[in-house]
Amino acid sequence: MSGKKILATNKKARHDYFIDEVFECGIELKGTEVKSIRQGRINLKEGYASVDNSEVFLKQVHISPYEQGNRYNVDPLRTRKLLLHKAEIRKLIGATTIKGYSLVPMSMYLKNGRVKVELGLAKGKKLYDKRQDLAKKDAMRRIERESKDRY
Predict the structure, then answer these.
(1) CB < 8 Å & 24+ apart, contacts of 94-102
(2) Residue 42: which of 122, 117, 119, 124 has the closest Cα?
(3) In 21-126, which ranges are continuous DSSP H helix?
(4) What is the 3-state secondary structure (H, E, C) of 115-133?
(5) pLDDT digit string (tens) for 26-73?
(6) Would you report the helix, strand and coil content of the chain in percent, each value rounded to 5?
(7) Which of 51, 53, 58 is closest to 93 using CA atoms?
(8) Which of 76, 111, 121, 138 is such that its CA lies 20 to 30 A from the CA of 69?
(9) Sign of the CA dihedral running 13, 19, 22, 27
């Protein structure tokens, strides 16, 4: 199996943050979690990542328990380790120590049969930034609509 199948996206991330850089990383999962993710039973909205002891961990991401998993199911909100190269981890450590930067999961997808997480290096938006973005989107929609009406 090749290609990329998107399982979940965090639409709120681009709304609430300026994304400076995006990293693709693997994730350490249990068997029943993989089955549940393949069914699309995952929520990235409240999730974030942090660097502890030169390792990156994904926190507050809800993966619903697999129905047929019975005793093999694990805590839906458990902390999961992300798999990155050492150079990438060093870069993230440097960036997160700078004031205002955080790590936000952007999406989760299957790539060549493996679950991958797209992690964004993000800086928080202020309310007026969000208003400016909405105004730009509205203006672009209006321009598109008017250009369609002309032809």
Answers:
(1) 95/20, 95/21, 95/121, 96/50, 96/51, 100/124, 101/20, 102/17, 102/48
(2) 117
(3) 31-38, 86-97
(4) EEEEEEEEEECCHHHHHHH
(5) 999 888 888 888 888 898 988 899 998 989 999 998 888 887 877 777
(6) 35, 40, 25
(7) 51
(8) 111
(9) negative
